[in-house]
Amino acid sequence: MNMQHKNVYIVGMYDRSITGFATYKEELSACMLTQPDLSVNFINLRCPIPEFRIDEKSGIIIYDCPATKQKPLEVAGALLSLHISDNNNNIFLINFAPSALFVKILRKYFNKGKIVYIIHDFMWALYLWGDINRLKDIIACGKSDKLTPLIKQFYFDGAETFNMSDHVVCLSEDTQQLLENLYKVPKHKLTMIPNGLRDAFDSISYNKKTKLCGAVSTYRTLLYVGRTSEQKGIIDLLECFKMVLKVFPDCKLALIGEIDSKVIGAMDDKIRPNVLLLGEQPKQRVYEWYRIADIGILPSYYEQCSYTGIEMKMFGLPVISSDGFGIRQMFRPSNAIIASIGSRSHRQEFQRNLATAIIKALSLPAERISELKQNSRRDYLDRFNSINTLNKYKCMLEKLSIDRI
Length: 405
What we know:
Residues 217-377 form the Glycosyl transferase family domain. It is built from 16 helices and 14 strands.
C-alpha cells in the first residue's frame, strides 16, 4: 500500500550558528526530497526580519516568521494559516523546546494535520548535566534546591508537549525509556529513530596527515570536535590530558570548535604546546581531520544522538567516549573504549577514567586498533546512515497516515 502524498513541515527556531538541528534539517530534507510522495517545507520561527517571508530553495518552501515584539508565536501561527491549507496530509515536525505553547497554536490553526515532536535535547539536562537520578529526585519532591522550580517547569512543559503531540521521536534508547518510565508517555506514541548521515567516507594519505597536523608523522593525534561547553566534557578532557602527557609526551590534542575563555583558562604551560586550537572549520576540513586522526574523543555528560559521534563512526575512527545519558547507546566496548563518568559532583573521577582510557587506547596493538576501526565503521552502516533514518521516518509517517499510532 502506497503512502498518500505528505507535506512535511520541519519547524525550528531561527539560529545563525551551526547546530545539531541544522545538520538534522539538512540531512533529513535531502533524503526526503528524493521521495516523490513527500514535499519538504521549513518553518523558521523568531527570525530577525521585519515581515513574514516565503521563499523557495532547491525544491524546499521556506516560511520565515518574524520575531514580533508581541506574541511572536501566535503571530506566526496566524500568518502560516493564511498560506498553508489545513488538511490531513500535513505533518509538522517540531524541533525545539520548550514548545508546548507553539503546539497549542498549531492545534488551533491546523487541527487536521499531525504533530510530531522530535527530542533533540532536554532543557533540564543542560542544568543537571544529564543526571537522570537527580531529575527523578526533583520531580518526586525528594530533593529540593535552587534549580528545583526551573527543572519542574521544563519537565511539565515537556510532559504537556508529549501529551498534545500525535507522536514523539526519540533519538536514543535512554530517551525512550525516560519518556515511558518518568513522563508516562504511552509506548504507541513513541518511535526511536537515531540521527543519520549521508556517507562521506574516503581515504587520505599519511603525507596529508603530516601537512594537516603540522607535526611529524610519529605523533599520535587525539581529536575533539564540537561545542566547547563544560557539559560536553571539554574541561575534563584538558585536565586529563595533563596525565596523558606524562605517559605519551609527544601526543597532540586537536580541538575543532569555537574556543572560549574557559578553554584557554584550563590550559597551562604543561599542555599548551601539545594542544592544537583549530577553531571552527568548514565541513570538508573537519572531515579531513576525521580521516587522519588516531583517536576521536567524545567526553560528553549527555547527548541525544551526537552527529560528531556519527561522523567519527563514518570515518572508522577509534573512539573514546563517556558513558553519559544517550551516548552510552552509541558507543559500546565492541566499537569504543568507554570512560565512566562516575559522580558528577566529583569530576576528578571522570578525569582519571578518561586519562586511563586514552592511555589504554594509545597503548593498544595495531590489531585491536584495526578491529575498533572496522567495528566503528560497521556500526555507522548498520545504524546511523541516512537511508536507515529515512526509512524509519517514512514508516512512521505511513503509520500516522492510516491512524495506527
